Amino acid sequence: MTRPGPDNLQPRERLVRHGPAALSDTELLAVLLRSGSASLPVGRLASRLIERFGGLRGLLCAEADALERQPGLGPAKSAQLAAVLELSRRYLRESLVRGAALESPGATERYLKSVLRDHPHEVFACLFLDTRHRVIAFEELFHGTIDGATVYPRVVAEKALRHGAAALIVAHNHPSGVCEPSLADQAITRRLKEALSLLDIRLLDHFVIGEGSPVSMASRGLI
Predict the structure, then answer these.
(1) Separation of alpha carbons 61 and 84, rounded Å
(2) Which end is more exposed in the chain, N or C (fewer Cβ atoms within 10 Å of the end residue's Cβ)?
(3) Which stretch of DSSP H or E encloses residue 128?
(4) What mean pLDDT is predicted for residues 173-188?
(5) Per-residue H/E/C for 143-172
(6) Where do the domains of the chain lie?
(7) Which CATH number fits domain 6-89: 1.10.10, 3.40.50, 1.10.150, 3.90.930?
(8) For domain 100-216, is the CATH number 3.40.50.1980?
(9) Can you give the residue ranges of the MPN domain (predicted)?
(10) Using alpha carbons only, what angle is made at residue 98 by residues 96 and 104, rounded to the nearest 5 degrees?
(11) Which residues touch 153 (CB under 8 Å, ≥6 apart)?
(12) Would the pTM count as exceeding 0.90?
């Protein structure tokens, strides 16, 4: 019996033989979904979904009801996609927690981007750190409108004391995708730094999350 050549292998077989990096987005999605329907093979289903949602990011961030309206998908496959996104976020968080935040700035940026970038409204969040700048906890503290979130330094300080934090890294997203810190962003950063310094808690950085690389306000000399 003739064995299939590399171009004729099914996605799962290609993954086993060549590793996941050798597969296209469509093939990886097909491996995850495992099956399609009688009228829609899994390869075509994966291709349609990526086209319909504009890529993997749009697909994984889609609401469950939007996914379940697609031919060939249902609650079970929608749940699989939600699980994949959450697993990726937890992987990034675990990678960050195992080291010191300031020693792994790339991991910090990747994690913050994964949890904040795709919110439709502004969200302000904090990484609470110990004396060695290891992560104690992450919390989304304030949720705002498309125009902004109201941030209360007193609440941030209370949370920091509750966690026993010695330092903080804060971040918020710009739903517009533009990462440049606004004058309001700079003003709240100054207020936070002043309020926390009274408690001997350091504000190490404030990241603005949008499209592309997050902007560090500390690297801009704004802290």
Answers:
(1) 11
(2) N
(3) strand 123-129
(4) 91
(5) ECCCCCCCCCHHHHHHHHHHHCCCEEEEEE
(6) 6-89, 100-216
(7) 1.10.150
(8) no
(9) 101-223
(10) 45
(11) 188, 191, 192, 194, 195, 196
(12) no
